[in-house]
Amino acid sequence: MKISIVTENGSPVLNVNNVYSWNQGNEPMVFTQNYLVNKEGEKERYFFPYAKDNYFISVANTFPADNFSIKIEDIKGVYKTQMLPLQSYNLYILCSSENEKAKMFGKRTNNPVEVVLEKK
Question: Is 59:67 a contact under the CB 8 Å cutoff?
Answer without folding.
Answer: no
